[in-house]
Design a protein that fits this description.
There is one protein chain. The chain has a seven-stranded mixed sheet with strand order 8-10-7-11-9-12-13. It has a six-stranded mixed sheet with strand order 1-2-3-6-4-5. 33% of the residues lie in helices and 23% in strands. It contains 20 helices and 24 strands. The chain is globular and about 85 Å long.
């Protein structure tokens, strides 16, 4: 029997598995109050994933709002609230980037967990209307000699490299760090950056009653069901094997085709709004698109193309199958949209339409199984101001020092210590990891491993480029979360600056323990305050935030910056200048008889750093220099 809205209104006393789905008793009662009845099983599934800590940020919102108080940057085009932030880099170009984690899936199934972490962040960038051009990763594992690390690490590294390499995206930087505190809970943070025209930004909203809601990409399967919160009792049986995999399964070749398909759709102006399907799947895409648009949507769920025909409506709503997108398309452009998806052999189904009802209504074989206000699902979930407590252990940790450690008294002991340090996994070369990544695919990489920051050319014609760095120090954040956050920010800022670029924005990924632990919430709140204070001092905005709850007690802050406004000639431009023996900026001759040098500083007697416009720079060779 289908649990319809009508049936739910007639059976208010039916017991429901709200606790198994990760909801608290007061949250379940709140859902009943919102609906004026018990939720259907489909509605319960939607609320459970969208009100999870992963999707709703219900314990961190009160602190993360601090980032909204930061001064606005003139170069910031899109800030917190969208799939990724966007900054203007000049000459009509923009850069978008974001970092997020995929920690628990990478522990459960290392290869697919890491691979789909890359795939998910790439789709976030694609959803903004940009072509993804590079990725980075920041990885934390337990002791290198631990048996569990030997299980997790090879799969994670292979997943990151395999998915990114197949997409043709260079991996231009990151970190690998080992500490016993990460045993059983590795941190896998993936970053992607993309390039677009400033007039090509896409947003996740469903406007225009009568516009079609289209699902396209891979078919929907049983992988990742409930991954954003917990798996339903019907999915996992503790006494036997899992009925369905809890970790998403990625297909990078399908995603590559999806990327090119989307970019052609964007170029043809065939999309009004778009959202990728990641955490919470169709539940998230429909409720967020409707919440950000005119507020109404009607969906016929049985039109979803399936890999597994046995899936129930609830499983389809919760599935986190990869390589899927949802678009809003006007009726007059639907034929053109379908022609492009057919050209790329991307399966497509028209699920429904935007309405003016203000409600999200979902039918299953003609029966109404969801009828909700979309904002109650996607936006107006519970918000908690969790108690904070100064950690009982932190004073003793801070008072500890290296003075109690034995010191070398002989040359032999000193040599042993030096060799031990040089051979330690955290100080030794990480080429055995980075050599598994392709850093030059695409031909636009200017800087990568082992440089402090990565650098990518925007395009061949403009000579514009951007730099990006990913840095963190979990030990500093454990000793003093506020100062540790500042130090992470400062390190990333410096690593961007030394490439010659000016840092303009930051995206952070905050990895902490359970928000229900007051000591953890104190650490988290202090780290947010530190990051915010550091951004104020450096006059740089935070435009994307990712917060994840972990089981580890060793906390790590991820701070990532991009320098996109200090733009100078790429290596190809520099070679052309040297060959021609003159000074050029983007093909234009610079000199007294052509265009005068503006606010320049002599470098190495032969090269000049030239200010071009208000923010961009070029490194040029002086005309006539030997």
């Amino acid at each position: 029997m289908i649990d319809t809205v009508e049936l739910a209104a007639k059976t208010p006393d039916d017991e429901q598995p709200w606790a198994e789905l990760g909801l608290k008793s007061d949250e379940y009662l709140r859902i009943r109050d919102i609906l004026g009845r018990r939720p259907t099983t489909a509605e319960l599934a939607m609320y459970s994933v969208m009100w999870s800590e992963h999707c709703s940020y219900k314990s961190s919102k009160v602190h993360l709002r601090r980032f909204g108080d930061l001064p606005h940057s003139e170069s910031l085009l899109v800030g917190i609230g969208e799939n990724a932030g966007v900054v203007d880099v000049g000459d009509g170009y923009a850069v978008t980037f974001k970092v997020e984690s995929h920690n628990h899936p990478s522990y459960v199934e290392p290869y697919q967990g890491a691979a789909t972490g890359v795939g998910g962040i790439v789709r976030d960038i694609l959803t903004m209307g940009a072509r993804p051009v590079a990725v980075m990763d920041s990885l934390r594992f337990g002791s290198l000699t631990a048996p569990d690390t030997r299980r997790v690490l090879p799969g994670v590294v292979a997943g990151v490299g395999g998915y990114g390499n197949c997409l043709g995206l260079p991996n231009i930087g990151g970190e690998v760090y080992f500490d016993d505190s990460y045993l059983g809970n590795p941190l896998v943070n993936a970053l992607c950056v993309g390039v677009m025209r400033t007039d090509g930004i896409k947003l996740a909203k469903a406007d225009g009653p009568g516009n079609h809601v289209v699902l396209f990409g891979a078919r929907t399967g049983g992988d990742g069901i409930g991954g954003a919160s917990v798996l339903a009792s019907a999915t996992f049986d503790e006494t036997g094997p899992a009925k369905r995999p809890s970790v998403q399964v990625g297909d990078p070749f399908a995603e590559k085709v999806l990327i090119e398909c989307c970019l052609e759709l964007f170029a043809g102006e065939l999309v009004e709004g778009i959202q990728d399907l990641g955490a919470a799947g169709i539940s998230c895409a429909t409720s967020e698109l409707a919440s950000n648009g005119d507020g109404g949507m009607f969906i016929e769920l049985d039109r979803v193309l399936l890999r597994d025909p046995s899936l129930t409506a609830e499983e389809i709503l919760m599935s986190e199958s990869q390589e899927r997108m949802m678009a809003v398309v006007t009726p007059e452009k639907l034929e053109g949209f379908l022609a492009v998806t057919a050209k790329w052999d991307v399966e497509t189904s028209v699920l429904g339409e935007v309405t003016d009802t203000g409600r999200l209504i979902i039918n299953w074989h003609g029966e109404e199984i969801v009828n909700v206000l979309p904002r109650t699902v996607a936006v107006d979930g519970p918000v908690y101001d969790r108690p904070v407590a100064y950690p009982s252990w932190i004073d003793a940790l801070q008072a500890d020092s290296a003075s109690r450690l034995p010191k070398a008294t002989t040359p032999e002991e000193l040599r042993e210590q030096a060799v031990a340090l040089l051979g330690s996994p955290n100080l030794a070369s990480k080429e055995w990891v980075t050599n598994q990544y392709d850093r030059y695919v695409g031909g636009n990489t200017a800087l990568s491993f082992p440089d402090d920051g990565g650098m990518i050319r925007v395009d061949e014609g403009s000579g514009l480029g951007f730099a990006i760095a990913s840095d963190a120090n979990g030990r500093y954040c454990q000793l003093d979360p506020r100062q540790g956050a500042k130090l992470a920010l400062a390190e990333a800022y410096r690593n961007v600056a030394v490439t010659g670029a000016t840092p303009v924005a930051v995206s952070d990924c905050l990895n902490f323990g359970s928000p229900e632990n007051p000591e953890v919430m104190w650490q988290f709140s202090e780290a947010v305050e530190g990051m915010s204070d550091g951004c104020l001092e450096l006059e740089i905005p935070v435009f994307t935030v990712e917060r994840k709850d972990q089981l580890t007690t060793f906390d790590m802050l991820e701070a990532t910056l991009v320098g996109a406004d200090a733009l100078f000639s790429s290596k190809a431009d520099m070679r052309r200048m040297l060959q021609q023996g003159g000074a050029y900026i983007n093909g234009r001759r610079i000199g007294p008889e052509r265009e005068p040098l503006v606010e320049s500083d002599l470098l190495h007697g032969e090269f000049v750093l030239v200010r071009k416009g208000s923010k961009s720079y070029a490194l040029v060779r002086l005309a006539g220099a030997a």
